[in-house]
């Protein structure tokens, strides 16, 4: 819809009075908001614009002075003003402005001077000393520009690439060189940057196109982040890769590893002092029947047990589990705030209630003097018909499969997490939830990337 000049003038006058576009539209019934914005912008440009004649006059030289050119370049490319508006204000085309910029970047202020106009008329007097001085000045200016360029490149290496400023420019990858060139193109000519960084024009534009194009693995990245969060930030790239294959997403482990590294999807690991319940020899130790052979042909044939400690601001919590050597399942566990005999005895009672009559496993433990050497534990083992096995003194590798479970558990749900304000009761629930998740959902490479529960189901044991 077109409007007359009188209608535009009336709308702008009302806008000046009210200061509100909405009030103008409400009162006059026209124009649209976009039209009103355009009229205001064009009017402001007209106010700023200087009226120049197209002819060569004192007010508008066809060949402007060096000061005018430098002022235009400063406003356009340093202060960032709109080139179209500056072009209309000064009366010189945008093509001329870009041409001055190109000359200035390659040769400095001397390249955009009107040399012919500035030369005096009359007899030409040759001054050899002056010529030498001029040549020296030009050479010095070129060296200064080259040093400025090197300094800017080194600054971008630190800011963009986060690398040491002493790095050799020629050892940068083409992708890194392209990032530096893109950051400096508004200040230096492309030809200068390409020559300084020794990268061909075709290689630059190839890398530039890749960096500007949408990320190839964007959908996979979103899926990886979702899987990492769903599994409480406990899975590394191998398990994430396996979950992707389960969803029929085929991608190499290398790509998964790169995506996780770039997005800082790192499993938190921190080492703490291990809890030890050893209090000396208080009864005769059982023989080490397991002898580091943690392989089992069937469930409930060989099981391991131990105690581990969790220390949070609210207090200390102790976990005593049974680890089945067949598939790593935790069939029974107890949690308490006291590492007493009842912690392990109640765990063994619970485990026995879940076994069949003919299942009599070998139960391997460390030499924890106050737990697996007391009458309560020994009497229960004899009553249930289980076989005792114990590690050698101070030899954790003899029970490494159980220690490994404690390490994985703490890496995946304890280390690197803030438990300020978490009560003991809530933390016990967190432990129980983790072990249930470990049994039913946590995939293991040794089981063909199935959870212990899924593995037993696949064998028809459940």
UniProtKB/TrEMBL annotation:
Pfam families: HTH_21, HTH_29, rve, rve_2. NCBIfam families: transpos_IS3. Residues 295-460 form the Integrase catalytic domain. The keyword Transport does not apply. This is IS3 family transposase. Residues 137-164 form a coiled coil. Signal peptide: none annotated. One of its GO terms (biological process) is DNA integration. InterPro entries: Homeodomain-like_sf, HTH-like_dom, Integrase_cat-core, RNaseH-like_sf, RNaseH_sf, Transpos_IS3, Transposase_IS3/IS150/IS904. Involved in the transposition of the insertion sequence. PANTHER family: TRANSPOSASE INSF FOR INSERTION SEQUENCE IS3B-RELATED, TRANSPOSASE INSO FOR INSERTION SEQUENCE ELEMENT IS911B-RELATED. Keywords: Coiled coil. GO terms for molecular function: nucleic acid binding. It comes from Absicoccus porci. The keyword Coiled coil applies.
């Amino acid at each position: 819809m077109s409007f007359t000049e009188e209608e535009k003038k009336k709308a702008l006058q009302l806008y000046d009075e009210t200061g509100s576009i909405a009030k103008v539209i409400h009162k006059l019934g026209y124009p649209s908001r976009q039209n009103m914005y355009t009229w205001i912008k064009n009017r402001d440009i007209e106010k700023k614009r200087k009226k120049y004649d197209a002819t060569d006059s004192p007010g508008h030289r066809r060949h402007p002075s060096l000061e005018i050119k430098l002022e235009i370049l400063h406003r356009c490319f340093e202060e960032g003003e709109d080139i179209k508006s500056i072009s209309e204000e000064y009366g010189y085309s945008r093509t001329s402005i870009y041409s001055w910029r190109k000359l200035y970047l390659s040769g400095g202020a001397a390249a955009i001077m009107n040399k012919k106009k500035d030369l005096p008329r009359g007899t030409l007097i040759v001054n050899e000393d002056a010529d030498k001085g001029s040549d020296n000045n030009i050479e010095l200016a070129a060296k200064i520009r080259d040093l400025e360029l090197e300094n800017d490149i080194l600054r971008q290496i630190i800011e963009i690439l986060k690398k040491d400023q002493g790095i050799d420019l020629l050892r940068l990858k083409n992708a890194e060189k392209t990032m530096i060139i893109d950051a400096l193109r508004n200040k230096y000519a492309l030809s200068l940057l390409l020559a300084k960084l020794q990268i061909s024009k075709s290689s630059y534009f190839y890398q530039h196109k890749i960096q500007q194009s949408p990320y190839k693995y964007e959908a996979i990245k979103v899926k990886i982040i979702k899987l990492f969060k769903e599994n409480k930030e406990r899975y590394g790239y191998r398990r994430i890769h396996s979950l992707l294959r389960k969803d029929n997403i085929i991608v190499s482990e290398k790509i998964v590893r790169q995506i996780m590294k770039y997005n800082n999807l790192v499993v938190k690991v921190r080492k703490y002092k291990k809890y030890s319940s050893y209090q000396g020899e208080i009864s005769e130790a059982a023989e080490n029947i397991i002898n580091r052979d943690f392989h089992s042909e069937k469930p409930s044939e060989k099981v391991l047990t131990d105690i581990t400690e969790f220390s949070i601001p609210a207090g200390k919590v102790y976990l005593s589990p049974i680890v089945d050597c067949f598939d790593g399942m935790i069939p029974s566990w107890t949690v308490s705030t006291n590492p007493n005999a009842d912690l392990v005895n109640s765990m063994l009672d619970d485990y026995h209630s879940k076994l069949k009559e003919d299942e009599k496993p070998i139960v391997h433990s460390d030499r924890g003097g106050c737990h697996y050497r007391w009458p309560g534990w020994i009497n229960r083992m004899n009553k249930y018909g289980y076989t005792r096995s114990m590690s050698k003194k101070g030899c954790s590798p003899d029970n490494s499969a159980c220690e490994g479970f404690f390490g994985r558990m703490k890496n995946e749900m304890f280390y690197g997490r803030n438990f300020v304000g978490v009560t003991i009761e809530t933390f016990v629930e967190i432990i129980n939830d983790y072990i249930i998740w470990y049994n039913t959902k946590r995939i293991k490479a040794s089981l063909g990337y199935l959870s212990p529960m899924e593995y037993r189901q696949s064998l028809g044991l459940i």
